[in-house]
Amino acid sequence: MGISPLDDLADLLKDDMDAVNALILEHMQSDVPLIPQLAGYLIAAGGKRIRPLMTLACAALLEGDMTRAHRLACAVEFIHTATLLHDDVVDESDTRRGKDSANIIFGNEASVLVGDFLFSRAFQLMVMDGSLETLKTLSDASAIIAEGEVLQLSTQNNLETTLDDYLSVISGKTAALFAAACEVGPIIAGQPGDIRAALRTYGQALGMAFQITDDILDYSAVQEQLGKTTGDDFREGKMTAPVLYALEKSDSEEQSFWMRTLGHRQQKEEDLAQAQILIQKHNALDSSIALARRYGDEARTALAATPDTQIKTALTALIDFTIDRAY
Amino acid sequence: MGISPLDDLADLLKDDMDAVNALILEHMQSDVPLIPQLAGYLIAAGGKRIRPLMTLACAALLEGDMTRAHRLACAVEFIHTATLLHDDVVDESDTRRGKDSANIIFGNEASVLVGDFLFSRAFQLMVMDGSLETLKTLSDASAIIAEGEVLQLSTQNNLETTLDDYLSVISGKTAALFAAACEVGPIIAGQPGDIRAALRTYGQALGMAFQITDDILDYSAVQEQLGKTTGDDFREGKMTAPVLYALEKSDSEEQSFWMRTLGHRQQKEEDLAQAQILIQKHNALDSSIALARRYGDEARTALAATPDTQIKTALTALIDFTIDRAY
Questions:
Q1: Among A114, A175, A237, B322, who pairs with A207 as Cys (CB 3.0-4.6 Å)?
Q2: pTM for the complete prediction?
Q3: Rounded distance, CA A42 to CA A101, Å?
């Protein structure tokens, strides 16, 4: 077994992931050279390919047609890549996957348009597959992703944001695609509604745990020790779980701090450290981890209905692995 | 009959356009308030709804199921609206349909994301319709639109751009959606391949003529007399037909002028007037109109194969009307 359940899945599905990577390269081609240049820049930077891996794993778990799974996994990755390109424009990001982000190198304009291209390509791949069920699942997910992103924009810098608002945001922007990526597996395998619903729930809950953990890491001292970037969410005034839990218990002086730094985005050099101190003081990272664990439990329960195979073992281990990144 | 073939079509298809407008309002709704606010702002500003009208007209011409046509016409308009929102971000536009553009009022971020939402909604509508053929036609068109837009970005400010490059750009960014909007009609009506190909060709050629005429109008003195904006393409350094024809015949001093103003975008107050003088000197508007007329002829020929009805009369008249705007 590998060093992580993701490695285990990638090992178990190595030939399939190779096929998906070949399809990604093939379908990002265009007669317009800037398109493969920009798409290739982002895709070559790697990333964990966790969403297409979910599609492959859920299809393989139920002995679905893997040729169809390859194509649909590629569509899932293209939808994800399109949202990354658009996110970076929206967030005015300057790094992605440890490199300058595409909008910095190629400009916002090209990032928006190549995102549109990849999104269209994803639908072309689904049409090639020819299943209206997968088209429905992934077009519904795409609309929900956009809604989640717009809601995030509305809650940004807004200290009235509730934990429910936050959960709606991440359910849209992250969990919807995890859910759809997993649901494609049982659709391909022609599995009955309860197995399909179970894997959809697994993906949805795993996605929630994944995003909450990402949001924890953005305030984590551990990340800093590893030399990774922290504080992106803080700088952008995103209302994430660690902040919401700290805000809930804050006194009036602390409220003024959050209002200045997140509400008005008037930030000084030392403010991120101060934010981390307040988050620590109110055990807000622990509360966030507990929240992620509740989704982890939901994901684990959902898997109970599926066949016991090596893939299920890895999908189960992936739940804790996703959350344990927070330590 | 109305004052224009567009009015005639809108009169002939009044109940259908009312149904499409109701669907547009219904399907731009979302629990995230910013989405209908922003989408409604752009959609309420009007626009000619020419693309959904094409879908309705081509479906009605062949006696297709109009309930299906309503839904697919709404999808076509959503794809168009999404591209407008993204275009305005890309072009850093500040007006659209005579109002402040959405990116100015709501921000670039929201424009990108609401565009993504409308694009996803378009695919949801196509999935509801349930035809893989229309899904293929419109997802292919969407990919080609994005390619055209990226190619336009690559040719902008580039004086090496050829007329063929220009034709590729407008074929993608404009004609592809006209072609697909028309092709949906025969698909719904279950018409044989030659009628389908004919209406596709009509839409493609009409779209080319439409965009060439738009590009003429951006340098037209007539437009200025009507108080409409001119010079947008000039300011952005877009390489359109009037410029390309003028450039072809330019002497070295004129070439320096174009290189400074379009190539390097170093523009002074009086440069637009000077550009218009050079375009006039080389009869570049006439050459552009002749180009548009060639596409008009192609569109007219394509219609020959279709049934003789009032709608066909209006679709035929629409060709000259589209180009006569240039005078």
A1: A175
A2: 0.95
A3: 8
CB contact under 8 Å between A113 and B150, yes or no, is yes
DSSP B95: E
Mean pLDDT confidence for B175-203: 97
State which residue of chain B sits closest to A144, comparing Cα positions. B117
- Tell me the backbone φ, ψ of residue B100, rounded to 5 degrees: -55, 140
Residue type, B50: I
In terms of Cβ atoms closer than 10 Å to its own Cβ (0-12, 13-18, 19+), residue A59 is: buried
Q: What is the mean pLDDT of residues B235-258?
A: 97
Which among A90, A114, A132 is the nearest to B112, CB-wise? A90
Helix axes A163-170, A241-248, angle to 10 degrees: 180
Please give the Cα distance from A125 to B179 (Å, whole number). Answer: 21
Supply the ipTM of this predicted assembly.
Answer: 0.95
Across B131-145, average pLDDT: 98
Burial of residue B3 (CB within 10 Å: 0-12, 13-18, 19+) is exposed
pLDDT score at A172: 98
Least confident of B217-221, B242-246, B318-322: B217-221
| B2/B137 Cα distance (integer angstroms) | 32
Q: Give the model's pLDDT for residue B43.
A: 83
d(CA A166, CA B7): 48
Distance from C-alpha of B320 to C-alpha of B327, rounded to nearest angstrom: 11
B19 Cβ neighbours under 8 A, 6+ residues apart: B66, B70
B277: distance to nearest CA of chain A, Å? 31
Distance from the Cα of residue B79 to its chain's centroid: 11
Instruction: Mark out the alpha helices in A156-249 (DSSP H runs).
Output: 163-170, 176-188, 193-217, 221-225, 232-236, 241-248
- The tens digit of pLDDT for each residue in B93-123 reads 777 767 787 888 888 899 999 999 999 999 9
> Would you say residue B155 has pLDDT above 70?
yes
For the domain made up of B5-324, give the CATH fold.
Answer: Farnesyl Diphosphate Synthase (1.10.600)
Strands (E), A36-135: 95-96, 99-100
Tell which residue, A39, A43, A66, has the closest CA to residue A53: A66
- B/e letters for A129-146, b = 16+ CB within 10 Å, e = fewer, are bebbbbbbbbbbbbbbbb
End-to-end CA distance of chain B: 22
Q: Pick the residue from chain B with its C-alpha nearest to A108.
A: B90
pLDDT of amino acid A2: 60
Interface contact A132, partner B, CB < 8 A: yes
Contact in structure between B18 and B61 (CB atoms under 8 Å): no
